[in-house]
Structures are given as structure tokens and as C-alpha cells.
Design goal:
Mean pLDDT: 92
Number of helices: 8
Radius of gyration: 18 Å
Helix content: 25-40%
CATH architecture of the largest domain: 2-Layer Sandwich
Shape: globular
Strand content: 15-25%
Order of helices and strands: HHEEEHEEEEEEHEHEHEHEH
CATH superfamily of the largest domain: Fructose-1,6-Bisphosphatase, subunit A, domain 1
Strand order of the largest sheet: 2-1-3-4-5-6-7-8
Low-confidence stretches: none
CATH topology of the largest domain: Fructose-1,6-Bisphosphatase, Chain A, domain 1
Number of domains: 2
Number of strands: 13
Structural class: alpha+beta
Length: 264
């Protein structure tokens, strides 16, 4: 795998932030027995990781802007470029000692994602892509799964909980998907769901109501791994709408048809 100077910067930033998250994750189990619980600790870990990412990226590209999950939008002197950063995607997993969480980092140029990284620091798994250069798991080229029949597919998705999201819409989605596929999974990190779909671990991914920092890197990973990513209408930009259906060129259109038929 040949790395550009830009990708070297991105990988260095996520690895440095990831070392801090991995150390903090090791402390979470000790906090489970405390009266206060780990929530304040996890919030602090999230903020620390974001600060590391911002500092490392600003050092390398001082003129670029940011869209940060915690810090919001920050204008840069260079209006063409913007980092899109989620320092801890999968906060609930992190809080409960479940090692399925990730850092998601993408670079936007003139409104298009040109580079992305999803990094799980506990498993030391790195998924990276640059536009036109393919997608990689660590240093190995990856492709979306080659399955052609929905009946063979394992689908991952987001599930609305605790007053968040549209539970009615999710149940309609389930009625469309469950009778047609081999299995449904939920990891708790949309960025990992997309990365694992790009790598062929999952065949399809769908979710409503996501934020740009959840999906920016993952969208590029899917496309560079040979897959399709759209909104539920098959046309709109999921980075803008936050609604996403992703998978390989055979299964993604088939799943879209089921959603559209179920909601018509």
C-alpha cells in the first residue's frame, strides 16, 4: 500500500488519539462498580481524543477547517478543505467495556470526501481509503462481499433507543428486511458498520438519522471497495441527509427496492 503524505498525517493522528482511548478503555471496567459510573470519565476521554486529533491535524495542515462532533464547525483559512472528525464512535460500547468503537476521520475537499480513516484502537484495526486509490484494511486491499442473493446476506443496522430516532420507521424497515436475509447485526458504531461492510464482513448496512462525522469516512471506504452508498431513495447524498443504505452492487439495489416497496 502506497500512502500519500495526506494519508500519513491522518493515520498518525488517529493512532495517537487511539493510544489515549485504549488506555482510557482499560480503566472503564474499574469504574463500573463506582456509584457515579463511567459516564463522566467517558465524556472526558472523548474530549481528550478530539483535542489530540485537532492538534495533530492543525500541526500538519494549519489552514484546514474542522467539523467536530464535540467542538462543532471551525472555519479554516483554506475554504476548500475541512476535516470531519468523530473521536469516539460507539460511546455506549466504550462505557460498558465492549471493544467495538472507533475513531472516524475524513477530509472533505470542495464538498467531496477525498480521504477517510476508521480506526479501532483496541483491536488495532485500521480501515483507510483515498478517492481513486482503493480501500484498505491495515495494509491489505479490501472489497465489498461478492454475495448476490439477499437470502445469503448478513445485514448490520442502527437501532433507535431511549427516545432517539424513529422507532416506527425502524420497525417498518425490519418488516422489509427480516424475511429476506440470513441475519441482522448491530455493533453500536456506524463507522465500524461501514468499514466492516467495505471489508466484506457484513453484506449491507442501513440506518436513519446519522451525522456527517458518523459516516463521512465510511462512505468513501464503501465506494473505494467497489460498493454503492445512497439514501433510502437511491439518489440523495447520505452525507447530507444522514440516511444511508450501503452494500455491494447486487445487494444494495435489491435492499433499496424492498424498503421502497414497504414504504409505498
Amino acid at each position: 500500500m502506497q500512502r500519500s503524505a495526506l494519508m500519513t498525517v491522518m493515520l498518525g493522528a488517529v493512532q495517537k488519539a487511539g493510544r489515549g482511548l485504549a488506555r482510557d478503555f482499560g480503566e472503564v471496567e474499574n469504574l463500573q462498580v463506582s456509584v457515579k459510573g463511567p459516564s463522566n470519565f467517558v465524556t472526558a476521554a472523548d474530549l481528550r481524543a478530539e483535542e489530540v486529533l485537532r492538534r495533530e491535524l492543525e500541526r500538519a495542515r494549519p489552514d484546514f477547517g474542522f467539523l467536530l462532533e464535540e467542538g462543532g464547525a471551525i472555519e479554516g483559512r483554506d475554504p476548500r478543505h475541512r476535516w470531519i472528525v468523530d473521536p469516539l464512535d460507539g460511546t455506549t460500547n466504550f462505557m460498558h467495556g465492549i471493544p467495538l468503537f472507533s475513531i472516524s476521520l475524513a477530509l472533505e475537499r470542495d464538498g467531496e470526501i477525498i480521504a477517510g480513516v476508521v480506526y479501532n484502537p483496541v483491536m488495532d484495526e485500521t480501515y483507510s481509503a483515498e478517492r481513486g486509490s482503493g480501500a484498505y484494511f491495515n495494509n491489505r486491499r479490501i472489497r465489498v462481499a461478492a454475495r448476490k442473493n439477499l437470502a445469503d446476506a448478513v445485514v448490520t443496522c442502527g437501532i433507535p433507543h431511549f427516545g432517539r430516532g424513529d422507532a416506527g420507521q425502524f420497525m417498518r424497515d425490519m418488516r422489509a428486511v427480516m424475511p429476506a436475509v440470513s441475519g441482522i447485526r448491530r455493533t453500536g458504531s456506524a463507522a465500524l458498520d461501514l468499514a466492516w461492510t467495505a471489508a466484506g464482513r457484513f453484506d449491507l448496512f442501513f440506518e436513519h438519522g446519522l451525522s456527517p462525522w458518523d459516516v463521512a469516512a465510511g462512505i468513501l471506504l464503501i465506494r473505494e471497495a467497489g460498493g454503492y452508498v445512497t439514501d433510502f431513495d437511491g439518489r440523495s447524498n447520505p452525507l447530507v441527509t444522514g440516511n444511508i443504505v450501503a452494500g455491494n452492487p447486487d445487494l444494495q439495489p435489491a435492499l433499496l427496492k424492498r424498503f421502497q416497496a414497504n414504504n409505498s
